């Protein structure tokens, strides 16, 4: 195969029609205010006066005192494209956010911010902390984030922030802070019915009511979809409820969040198969079943003037079952002493539970396959409390927060591999025999883990002058992780990680309309139980499945510098209100953890991979009048390795005899596009009718497994989305959405697979690249009732 070393990949060529659409999206709306002088104001993002800078917060800091570039989104933003959607809103309105469709399911994406990931897939190193009402909802076993379980309609507002140690473990790249609705801030009801392409049918409903100092809120969401690829149906059911009390000095909210989902995710498919049919999948089935229930209490108490106590407590139950089919590296044994039995390729005989050999006759003339199953049961509980003071110091306005938190979780994990046969349509049919062959890297797993995380934090902001503010803070994190093997002793281990992480920043307002800032922050991420249990290259794990050894891993430490400017222009400029921002950031990670490929098909292991860096530029410009809103966002994410090394990648065509490739200092980290552009516009044609559109551009990215940047990267892409809504009567609104208007063929994730193993399928495959195709053109619509 021809290889290329290419440090600064470009996004490839895009059709002229996409460029034309972008041009029309800018030019045509720009002349429309002349035609629309009498209409009502556009429903746009309301100005956010304060941003939550701690997980537990009822007030937050004024934006112009924050030494960073936080992004805030309202409930109206989440519903701008129709049915409320958290992930889509983050992508549409922030160039720093992008999605990698690792699993091939739209409800379970990998979300990236500044090159750091929050993913539902165990096997993806996580770098973002996600909070809901002050509770960290990264799952205990792998720090994963299950986006499919978050009820978007119940979100009141969202803050997306850069690295901040106050947000505890995993905030090495940033934090997402969700605050949910209550009956005090959401009055009345709304019903949203939607449907569209690929069998999608959805229902979202909410209702809130206040009676005196008591209020209640309830929201439900239901979604079904057949999926656009073969064998990819999904369903989701979500619920959120809150009962709140407001007194003269105290508040209390009791809430429940629940979800049940069944997701079909077929993941990457060889590029040669997709060239013939974009709907194709490699092997099937691939299913994930999630169930979650969380009960939470949040309260505040005004201790005295300028002093407040805030706290929460929660109990969370999470249950997950996965089923994944794959090709197996089995064959009839060549050794005469093992005639009639099944062996690993160039390896020992395959054994079943109990130690007995496996007969090759179970396969008949079929191609060997496996059905991998996992089960994860986690019960967690914890809480946090903080004291907030706004008492002036030396006569200067000041906000000081001191807090503590504790999170405990117990997890039972099981994993098994069942022998199967691959049918002509590449469905794997199980044969009822479970493989248990530690000598070949496949064995049953039963593991119990305990996480105990506690932290102490503080942060203070003081106005040194009317225009200069300073922030200092920090957090001490302590993580104790206990692993106990329920079958043998190989997985047993006790691990403790602790660290003090400081932060400091300055904001200066040289003009009433301009804020400049500079900040520094450190944060750490402790290895998860999943990573600690899958760190032996001799006993690799299925991606997101099995755990067979317990070598220690080092914790990841991040050091982030950030600086920039943001502000507004005079309202008279072009007849509208203009906001802008320009910022730089650099995050250096020590002992970064990566999942690297194993020689065994579909398996990998975690290892510390030296130092890495994410640095870049964030720039934005937004302009709006009463009729028109235009926003342009750009992000440069330069993500590179800073340590020269050889990393395992046995499926790489340029791998050496040991299955490794040479990674040089400065090579790009796979899966992270360097350039991202978001253009969004909305025009209110009449008081009742709105039109809008978004252009999303991501440049190229390297495949996972090509950390040396030797192969052709996944091409960049640009897609155009359109939306419209029409109020047809009091409280009744119709809306429509077109995704990927020009049916652009694109991919958001790619990796490498074993051509030798796949040769048993007789498909004539010669290219080891496998990618997840992006959504084709799709149409969605719905009706919204408000009462």
TrEMBL record:
Pfam families listed in its UniProt record: Plug, TonB_dep_Rec_b-barrel
Compartments where found: Cell outer membrane
Domain TonB-dependent receptor plug: 71-175
Claim: Transport is one of the keywords in the record: yes
Domain TonB-dependent receptor-like beta-barrel: 238-741
Protein topology in the membrane: Multi-pass membrane protein
Superkingdom, natural source: Bacteria
InterPro entries named among the record's database cross-references: Beta-barrel_TonB (IPR000531), Beta-barrel_TonB_sf (IPR036942), Plug_dom (IPR012910), Plug_dom_sf (IPR037066), TonB-dep_rcpt-like (IPR039426)
Alphabetized UniProt keyword annotations: Cell outer membrane, Membrane, Receptor, TonB box, Transmembrane, Transmembrane beta strand, Transport
Family classification: Belongs to the TonB-dependent receptor family.
Protein name: TonB-dependent receptor
């Amino acid at each position: 195969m021809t290889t290329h070393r290419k440090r600064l990949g470009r996004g490839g060529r895009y059709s002229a029609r996409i460029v034309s659409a972008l041009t029309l999206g800018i030019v045509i709306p720009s002349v429309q205010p002349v035609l629309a002088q009498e209409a009502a104001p556009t429903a746009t993002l309301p100005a956010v006066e304060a941003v939550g800078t701690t997980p537990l917060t009822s007030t937050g800091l004024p934006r112009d005192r924050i030494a960073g570039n936080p992004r805030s989104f309202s409930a109206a933003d989440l519903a701008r494209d129709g049915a409320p959607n958290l992930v889509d809103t983050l992508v549409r309105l922030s160039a720093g956010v992008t999605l990698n469709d690792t699993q091939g399911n739209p409800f379970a994406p990998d979300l990236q911010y500044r090159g750091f990931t929050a993913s539902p897939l165990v096997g993806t190193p996580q770098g973002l902390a996600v909070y809901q009402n002050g509770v960290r909802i990264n799952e205990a076993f792998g720090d994963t984030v299950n986006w499919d379980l978050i009820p978007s309609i119940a979100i009141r507002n969202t803050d997306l922030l850069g690295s901040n140690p106050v947000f505890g473990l995993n905030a090495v790249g940033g934090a997402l802070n969700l605050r949910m609705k209550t009956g005090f801030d959401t009055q009345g009801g709304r019903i949203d019915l939607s449907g569209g392409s690929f069998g999608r049918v959805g229902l979202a409903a909410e209702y809130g009511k206040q009676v005196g100092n008591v209020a209640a809120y309830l929201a439900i969401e239901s979604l079904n979809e057949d999926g656009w690829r073969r064998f990819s149906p999904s369903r989701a059911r979500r619920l959120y409820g809150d009962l709140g009390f407001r007194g003269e000095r105290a508040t209390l909210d009791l809430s429940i969040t629940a979800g049940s989902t069944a997701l079909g995710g077929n993941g990457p498919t060889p590029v040669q198969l997709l060239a013939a049919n974009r709907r194709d999948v490699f092997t099937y089935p691939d299913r994930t079943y999630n169930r979650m229930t969380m009960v939470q209490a949040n309260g505040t108490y005004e201790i005295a003037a300028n002093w407040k106590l805030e706290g929460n407590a929660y109990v969370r139950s999470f249950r997950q079952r996965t089923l994944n089919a794959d090709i197996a590296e089995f064959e009839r044994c060549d050794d005469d002493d093992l005639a009639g039995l099944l062996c690993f390729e160039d390896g020992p005989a395959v054994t079943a539970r109990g130690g007995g050999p496996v007969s090759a006759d179970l396969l008949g003339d079929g191609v060997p396959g496996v059905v991998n199953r996992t089960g994860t049961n986690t019960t967690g509980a914890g809480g946090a409390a903080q004291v907030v003071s706004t008492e002036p110091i030396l006569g200067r306005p000041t906000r000081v927060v001191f807090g503590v938190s504790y999170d405990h979780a117990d997890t039972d994990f099981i994993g098994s591999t069942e022998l199967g046969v691959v049918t002509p349509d590449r469905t794997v049919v199980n044969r009822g025999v479970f493989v248990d062959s530690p000598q070949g890297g496949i064995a049953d797993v039963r593991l119990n883990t305990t996480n105990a995380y506690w932290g102490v934090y503080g942060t203070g902001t003081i106005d040194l002058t009317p225009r200069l503010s300073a922030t200092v803070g920090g957090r001490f994190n302590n993580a104790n992780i206990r692993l106990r093997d329920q079958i043998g002793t190989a997985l047993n281990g006790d691990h403790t990680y602790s660290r003090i992480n400081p932060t400091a920043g300055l904001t200066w307002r040289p003009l009433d309309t301009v804020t400049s800032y500079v900040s520094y922050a450190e944060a750490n991420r402790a290895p998860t139980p999943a990573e600690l249990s899958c760190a032996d290259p001799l006993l690799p794990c299925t991606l997101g499945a099995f755990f067979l050894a317990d070598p220690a891993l080092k914790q990841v430490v991040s050091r982030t510098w950030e600086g920039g400017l943001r502000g507004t222009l005079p309202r008279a400029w072009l007849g509208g209100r203009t906001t802008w921002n320009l910022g730089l950031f650099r995050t250096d990670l020590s002992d970064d953890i990566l999942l690297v490929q194993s020689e065994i098909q579909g398996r990998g292991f975690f290892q510390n991979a030296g130092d890495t860096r994410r640095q870049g530029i964030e720039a934005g410009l937004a302009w709006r009048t009463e009729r028109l809103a235009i926003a342009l966002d750009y992000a440069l994410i330069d993500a590179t390795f800073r340590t020269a090394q050889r990393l395992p990648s046995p499926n790489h065509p340029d791998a050496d005899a040991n299955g490794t490739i040479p990674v040089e200092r400065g090579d790009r980290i796979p899966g992270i596009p360097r350039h991202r552009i978001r253009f969004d516009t909305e025009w209110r044609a009449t008081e009742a009718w709105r039109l809008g559109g978004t252009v999303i551009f991501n440049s190229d990215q390297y495949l996972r497994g090509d950390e040396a940047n030797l192969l052709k990267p996944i091409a960049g892409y640009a897609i155009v989305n359109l939306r419209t809504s029409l109020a047809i009567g009091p409280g009744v609104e119709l809306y429509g959405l077109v995704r990927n208007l020009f049916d652009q063929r694109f991919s958001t994730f790619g990796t490498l697979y074993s051509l030798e193993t796949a040769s048993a399928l007789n498909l004539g495959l010669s290219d080891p690249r496998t990618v997840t195709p992006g959504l084709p053109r799709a149409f969605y619509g719905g009706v919204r009732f408000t009462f």
